[in-house]
Amino acid sequence: MKLAAEWDIKEYACPAGGCLLTDPIFARKMKDLMDDNIDFTLNDVHFLKIGRHLRIAKKTKAVMGRNKKENEKLMSFVQDGDYVIEKNGIPGPITVVRGEVSEDIKQLAASITAAYGKGNNSDSIEVTMKKAPDESVEIIRVIPHTQKEVAKYLI
């Protein structure tokens, strides 16, 4: 600010921090994104600001909302080819899966989604899975992962 005054610069960005790259959690998510996809988009970067991020396979990432507001925000960033997973008839997180998605990845992402929110202590839970943009619904019954199992995927 002193230098700006010396040079008579009146308008400049706020110097009081605010750069997300100084946040260790955001920086870790950004590094993961850059390691995985050199052609990432602004949508991908905005996606980093929301929810729990999980690297569930080398070319597949899942992002899970932690509350209703994050669930809504996540839905605003869904792109063609993304899968949206939520518990069938039970309140809880929404998970968006982006990248290469096999049947095994669908099962894993569904089990991780089932691990959070109500019903996570059940023997099995039904989840709905929709692939954007067609919104056709697939129902999968899964055994919820434990928090310990989920932790190994967290970014």
Characterise the protein shown here:
With 155 residues, the protein is α+β, with helices and mostly antiparallel strands. It has one domain (19-151). It is 32% helix and 23% strand. The chain has helices at residues 2-6, 24-36, 42-47, 68-76, 103-114, 147-151, and strands spanning 52-57, 60-64, 83-87, 94-99, 125-131, 137-142. A 6-stranded antiparallel beta sheet has the order 1-2-4-3-5-6, with helices on both faces. A hairpin with a 5-residue loop joins strand 5 and strand 6 (137-142). The longest helix has 13 residues, at 24-36. The two termini are 36 Å apart.
Describe the SSE topology.
Elements: H1 2-6, H2 24-36, H3 42-47, E1 52-57, E2 60-64, H4 68-76, E3 83-87, E4 94-99, H5 103-114, E5 125-131, E6 137-142, H6 147-151
Antiparallel strand pairs: 1-2, 2-4, 3-4, 3-5, 5-6
Residue windows where pLDDT falls under 50 for at least 5 positions: none
Helical residue percent?
25-40%
Strand order of the largest sheet: 1-2-4-3-5-6
Report the end-to-end length measured between terminal Cα atoms. 36 Å
Q: Element order, helices and strands?
A: HHHEEHEEHEEH
Secondary structural class: alpha+beta
The major pleated sheet works out as: 6 strands, antiparallel
Please state the average pLDDT score.
88
Number of helices: 6
Count of spatially separate domains: 1
Give the overall shape, derived from the CA principal axes.
elongated
Q: Can you count the beta strands?
A: 6
Rg (C-alpha, Å): 19 Å
Percent range for β-strand residues: 15-25%
